[in-house]
Specification:
The complex is a heterodimer of chains A (270) and B (288). With 270 residues, chain A is α/β, with parallel strands linked by helices. In chain A, 31% of the residues lie in helices and 24% in strands. Chain A has 8 helices and 10 strands. Chain B has helices at residues 32-63, 71-83, 85-118, 120-135, 142-149, 153-177, 181-189, 194-232, 237-246, 250-278. The chains are: A alpha/beta (270), B mainly alpha (288).
Chain lengths: 270, 288
């Protein structure tokens, strides 16, 4: 459960324009410490662009992103990112890829090694330290991508459709793995996805984008306690939230009835 | 050079993690069919070569003057030519010049190519000249080189470098322009220093393009060396060919020609071996 805690990411009236066309406009939301916020919306609604603006890889046209109260201009310290297509360097081994964030910070190989090994074990890649990315399946490559992001012990973790390039089974496995790993180190997380199920399973709250240019249609409190797991998707609350988000994204008029808060919902004990 | 290398080994049903089976890249999977296919190709190639040589032998042996080279006479002359001290030293100097030129061309060409590819301003200034020189027959500048460097091995080396460096610059510039944004995003999110971006990402990303450029450069370097020797008359394989043809020793010239072909093949094989052992991550997509 998100407690009353500090806001780590604050997105303030963000607008991005390419040429004459707004991709999104007036987007405002925040992410608190130890909270996962899912960003969901139809493809082409600018989810990835929004995320790139948040981490400072791209400048918004208007509006400001604050991370730990500092306006974001360039990628700030303590922010790690997991990419849809993994972003592993093909010329580096798994261990060297995982160590990348530490290496460029000037950590010596000796000092980095134990931490890197711990992370490789954590994501389940023990035995593959010396493998090159081309020798791994997509799911294993994304495990390495996740380990690289965690290596710098980020306070903010942004995920850009991290499982979109994987097959359905692998995706299910990795979702649960990510939940398990996140429970051991609860960084503030912004989770961009086009899968509504994934958004509900991961998020404490869900930001729903829609329209052209897209803007926030609603921000939903998921209200399912943690730790979550495979059983989560079988709960009444999960189905309720999923249906609501689905209707919202698909412009169904039933979404005009707002989602009841989790206080009204039957609480599921795990 | 196994044709199976491009089959990406994926551990099936191994997504549960630590228990996943170790991926091996040297498992001979279904080697029989492609290898039979390859055997047939080799046989076809070989018999086509034999056929060509037979036609040559028959036509030249039957209708041409006796000093014109034939396959059989060429083969007969091989031991004598290879034993000739002058020939050995000619092979050595030409080979050394070509290798030296290739090394210099790869080092400088890669650096220039990277800078051109990554810095649009440099590309704007140099791009036109590189494409221009790449397009013209560079043989035309050999007379100029003889004026600048004299009738010396330096002129030959200059020619080899000029011939070899252009395809490398051209390829590397094109390749490094296309560094995937994702890689650069990774460096930016992790605050990598500028030199780490160049050495750690831009350079390794350009390796396939360096190799593609080098592939073209080998042939051009040999052309440059031989042409320079023709014009400057300095000792080397090119001059050996010229000298023997002019003294009606065509079969000897033919042997030298074969050695040139062998050069190109050996250099290429050496590079392939270096790539296989030195760059384990690099998997060129092989044509089938």
């Amino acid at each position: 459960m998100p407690e009353q805690s500090e806001t780590l990411i604050r997105v303030d009236k963000l607008t991005k324009r390419y040429g004459q066309r707004d991709v999104f406009s007036g987007v405002s939301f925040d992410v608190k410490a130890g909270e996962i916020v899912s960003i969901v919306g139809p493809s082409g609604c600018g989810k990835t662009t929004l995320l790139r603006c948040v981490v400072g890889l791209m400048r918004p046209t208007t509006g400001t992103v604050y991370i730990s109260d500092a306006p974001v201009v360039d990628p700030p310290e303590g922010v790690a990112m997991v990419f849809q297509h993994f972003g592993l360097f093909p010329w580096k081994t798994v261990a060297a890829n995982v160590a990348y964030g530490l290496t460029v910070q000037g950590t010596s190989k000796k000092d980095a090694a134990p931490r890197v090994q711990k992370l490789i074990d954590l994501v389940g890649l023990a035995g593959y330290e010396k493998s090159y990315p081309y020798q791994l399946s997509g799911g294993m490559q994304q495990r390495a991508g996740l380990a690289r992001a965690l290596a710098i012990e980020p306070s903010v973790l942004v995920m850009d459709e991290p499982f979109a390039a994987l097959d359905a089974q692998t995706r299910d496995v990795l979702q649960l793995e990510l939940l398990r790993i996140w429970d051991t180190r609860r960084a503030a997380m912004m989770f961009v996805t086009h899968s509504i199920d994934e958004a509900v399973l991961m998020g404490d709250r869900i930001v729903i984008l829609r329209g052209r240019p897209s803007s926030i249609f609603d921000i939903v409190d998921v209200g399912i306690s943690r730790p979550r797991g495979r059983d989560t998707v079988d709960t009444e609350r999960f189905r309720t939230v999923r249906d609501y988000v689905w209707r919202a994204v698909m412009h169904d008029s039933a979404a005009d009835t707002p989602l009841p808060t989790d206080a009204d919902a039957v609480r599921i004990e795990l | 050079m196994s044709t199976q290398n491009d089959v990406v080994p994926v551990a099936p049903a191994s997504e549960t993690g630590p228990s996943a089976a170790r991926v091996r890249d040297d498992v001979p999977v279904a080697l029989t069919r492609p290898s039979r296919h390859r055997l047939r190709n080799v046989a076809l190639r070989f018999s086509a070569g034999i056929g060509l040589l037979a036609v040559w032998q028959l036509v030249v042996g039957g209708f041409a003057p006796s000093y014109i080279a034939t396959p059989i006479d060429t083969i007969r002359r091989i031991p004598a030519v290879l034993g000739d001290v002058q020939f050995q030293s000619d092979v050595g100097t030409t080979l050394l010049a070509v290798l030296e030129g290739l090394v210099i061309a790869v080092v400088i060409g890669t650096m220039v190519g990277l800078v051109m590819g990554r810095l649009p301003d440099v590309n704007r200034v140099l791009g036109m000249y590189v494409s221009g020189f790449y397009a013209i027959p560079l043989i035309a500048i050999v007379p100029l080189l003889t004026v600048w460097f004299g009738y010396t091995p330096t002129a030959r080396l200059a020619m080899v470098i000029i011939e070899a460096i252009l395809p490398i610059i051209y390829n590397v510039a094109e390749g490094s322009r296309l560094v995937p944004t994702m890689y650069l995003d990774v460096t930016r999110v992790h605050h990598a220093a500028w030199w780490r971006v160049w050495i750690g990402v831009v350079l390794p990303n350009a390796v396939p393009y360096v190799l593609a450029g080098l592939d073209l450069a080998i042939g051009r370097a040999l052309i440059g060396a031989v042409v320079a020797e023709f014009v400057t008359a300095i000792n080397g394989l090119g001059y050996y060919i010229l000298f023997n043809v002019r003294s009606f020793h065509e079969n000897e010239a033919m042997v030298a020609l074969l050695v040139l072909v062998l050069f190109a093949l050996v250099i290429r094989a050496l590079i392939n071996a270096a790539v296989t052992y030195g760059l384990r991550w690099y998997r060129p997509t092989e044509e089938s």
